[in-house]
Amino acid sequence: MGKRACAHAVLSGNQGLWAVRDRSSFDDLSQRVRDLHEDQVYSIIEVVVRAMESWAQLKTPCDSQMRRPDSTLREDVERVAHSLVFDGFIAATPIERLRNLPRYIQAQALRVRKALRSPSDLARDERSAQALAQVDEELRELRELMDTRPFDARHASDFEELLWMREELRVFICSRTGDRAKNFTSAHVGSNRSPARGHMKREDARAMARELMDHHGLREWSLRFDRARRRAGACVHTRREIRLSGLLVDLYDAETVRGVILHEIAHALLAPHIIDAIWQAKARQLGAPDSARLSAHLPSPRPSWVGVCPVCGTRRELYSAPRRVTLRCVFTHF
């Protein structure tokens, strides 16, 4: 049964619309429609009222922005607001999305208030706007690509979902407390993480590194711990410095840490060589791993962020808040 036939059956019952031939039948039909949709209409009206109230609240901070000709904040905020509330927006916006409009508009009001606090906050907002402009540009490219293909209802639905995901991204950016999402630091693997049984302490790793460096003639070289998450060590010839990842040292056992230190010492002793046969021979002589990569079975810090493609579900793990959001994966599905 088609949608129109279903609507006819719901409205007119078993008799069908052909039975509506007199005033009494029409009044019965009107009452049926009123009973079916009255609650939903009131719900929509309530959402629209809240959206318009949020719109009015947005106008005040935007008017104060008029005194700042050096910024495009007002123009950008009004562009976003007009893309949400426009002539016919009630009919054009799906009911499940309509309920989110007040939140989207309030996020823009919050954005203006935060941006006007100081020049640094305004500069931060401009950087976020540039990132979102990149998202808008990629969405336009995706729309143009879809227009060159035969219509596909699934792709159209996925694209609509991307547009609303963009609004959620705007809300998230407006609610952040700074350049980085500091409210997510509890998910980060910090340096105060207590080592598990069998894992090496940093002070022990420092003592081991100093002893090995001195033994191999690197007394003038220094050791420093950093917060690298994807590499265990580094050799910086310009600074005469060997670096170890403090986060990974907290997770590795003494034997693995020793291998990392000797690996970097081999780099320090053979400066012109990177990973070639001469360097590999030296690494083996020192008892260090002669590969650029450690075993994939070694523990690693938990990623703080996980990006998921809304179309295919592909996941990408990130160790810091993304500064640029792209839709490259989505392009491959259209």
Could you tell me the mean pLDDT?
78
The portion of residues assigned to helices is 55-70%
Please tell me what the overall shape is: elongated
| Helix-and-strand structural type | mainly alpha
* Largest sheet: number of strands, sense, barrel closure: 3 strands, mixed
Overall number of strands: 5
Assembly state: single chain
Unreliable segments of 5+ consecutive residues = 178-197
Q: What is the beta-strand fraction?
A: 5-15%
Strand order of the largest sheet: 1-3-2
| Tally of DSSP helical segments | 13
Distance between the termini: 31 Å
The value of Rg in angstroms is 30 Å
| SSE series | HHHHHHHHHEEEHHHEEH
List the keywords.
three-stranded mixed beta sheet; 13 helices; 334 residues
Structure description:
It is a single chain. The chain has 334 residues and is mainly alpha-helical. The chain contains 13 helices and five strands. The chain has helices spanning 3-12, 23-65, 73-84, 89-92, 95-98, 101-115, 119-147, 153-175, 202-215, 246-249, 254-269, 277-286, 328-331, and strands at residues 222-226, 233-236, 241-245, 305-308, 315-318. The strands form two sheets. It has a three-stranded mixed β-sheet. A two-stranded antiparallel ribbon has the order 4-5. Helix 2 runs parallel beside helix 6 and helix 7 (119-147) runs antiparallel to helix 8.
Task: Offer a concise description of the structure.
With 334 residues, the protein is mainly alpha-helical.
Please give the structural blueprint:
Elements (H helix, E strand, L loop, with lengths): L2 H10 L10 H43 L7 H12 L4 H4 L2 H4 L2 H15 L3 H29 L5 H23 L26 H14 L6 E5 L6 E4 L4 E5 H4 L4 H16 L7 H10 L18 E4 L6 E4 L9 H4 L3
Parallel strand pairs: 1-3
Antiparallel strand pairs: 2-3, 4-5
Helix pairs in contact: 2-3, 2-6, 3-6, 6-8, 7-8, 9-11, 11-12
